[in-house]
Amino acid sequence: MNLPNVLTMSRIVLAVVLVFLLEESSPLGNILAAIVFTVASLTDFYDGHLAKTKGLVSDFGKIMDPIADKILILSTFGVLAHIGMIAWWMFIVIAVREVLVTASRFWAMAHGRILAAERAGKIKTVVQIVAVSVILLYLVAQQSEFCSYWFYNVQRIWLGINYGMMLAAVMVTVYSGIDYFRKS
Question: Which residues, including other chains, have CB under 8 Å from residue 155's CB and lie 6 or more apart?
């Protein structure tokens, strides 16, 4: 197993850690969750970068990289919906798209084809990562002693930004799903 594949698999492990940290719903848990999510997101960039620049692209990586992304994103969005930070309908729309695309990839694989991630899918992942990052920063600020005074005054604005980011993530997710099925 090469380094890009190890980074891909580490993202799955980090997703599990992230779920436990967010469910803890403590100031320290939220800070650690933001750190873990940042590290996991960086592994998404570096596994692909290393695979391409070092000639380590593999069928395993083409299959597991998007799956690891989905595990990270869906588990995070699932917990965020559970704790009331995002609307359930947003999570469901994103989850349906991810499941349909993954099922399509497995079907193609069973018929001897490996479908690598498309550009729209990569953009979708970036938008989702940014949306989660903004929400995690909100959770950290909400429970921080240093932010408590000013946070109350800007909370409504920040919640609007969170909602807008999630709406953008949902729209890009739907578009990338349509684009994926149109092309494949």
Answer: 142
